[in-house]
């Protein structure tokens, strides 16, 4: 958790900030919030705070905005920040509860990779099953036309059922339910 004043100076940092950003609280208190803002985002932060202080209009979601923060070693940390505004002795302050979402983003990425592999597998499976299935169905249909028999009707029904199952598997994989 960090608290900044209306001039963007950090006035409070709890110990958990060290786990997330690598700074001991004492290293942050008294410094500008820009110490933890990636350089490419500094103009946006300056403008957003100035605009809010001047107009009172929020231009971001204060209940959870995902922004990168700058770690002490220079790498960016994906964070989820919830902000609150408060006054103390007539001064305006902003407190942000910061959560590191690195692991969550990694899990989401891994899940997406698994989903992509599953879709690829389903596509290959349907192709590799449907081609010989179509051939078997075609030959069985020809044989059934030449020699009608209940056995060939059952074979055709079974082949149709297999094709339906393949279609269901493909549909489920596309929806991410397999």
UniProtKB/TrEMBL annotation:
EC top class, as a word: transferase
Identify the EC number(s).
2.7.13.3
What is catalyzed by this enzyme?
A: ATP + protein L-histidine = ADP + protein N-phospho-L-histidine
The answer to whether keyword Metal-binding applies is no
Domain PAS: residue ranges? 1-43
Q: Could you tell me which residue ranges the PAC domain spans? A: 63-113
Q: Where do the TM regions start and end?
A: none
Record's superkingdom?
Answer: Archaea
Q: Which InterPro entries match?
A: HisK_dim/P_dom, HisK_dim/P_sf, PAS, PAS-assoc_C, PAS-like_dom_sf, Sensor_kinase/Photoreceptor
GO MF terms, alphabetically ordered: phosphorelay sensor kinase activity
Query: Pfam families of this UniProt entry?
Result: HisKA (PF00512), PAS_9 (PF13426)
Keywords of the record, alphabetical order, are: Kinase, Phosphoprotein, Transferase
Is this entry keyworded Glycoprotein? Answer: no
Q: Which SMART domains match?
A: HisKA (SM00388)
Q: What is this protein called?
A: histidine kinase
Q: Which organism is it from?
A: Haloferax denitrificans ATCC 35960
């Amino acid at each position: 958790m960090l608290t900044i004043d209306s001039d963007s100076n950090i006035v409070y940092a709890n110990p958990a900030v060290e786990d997330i950003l690598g700074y001991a609280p004492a290293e942050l208190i008294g410094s500008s919030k820009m110490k933890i803002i990636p350089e490419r985002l500094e103009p946006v932060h300056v403008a957003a705070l100035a605009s809010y202080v001047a107009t009172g209009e929020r231009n971001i979601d204060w209940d959870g905005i995902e922004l990168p923060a700058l770690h002490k070693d220079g790498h960016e940390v994906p964070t989820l920040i919830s902000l609150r505004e408060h006054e103390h002795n007539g001064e305006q302050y902003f407190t942000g509860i910061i959560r590191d979402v690195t692991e969550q983003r990694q899990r989401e990425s891994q899940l997406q990779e698994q989903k992509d592999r599953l879709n690829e597998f389903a596509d290959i499976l349907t192709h590799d099953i449907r081609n010989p299935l179509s051939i078997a169905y075609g030959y069985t249909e020809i044989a059934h036309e030449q020699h009608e028999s209940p056995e060939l009707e059952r074979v055709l029904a079974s082949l149709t059922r297999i094709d339906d199952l393949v279609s269901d598997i493909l549909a489920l994989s596309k929806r991410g339910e397999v």
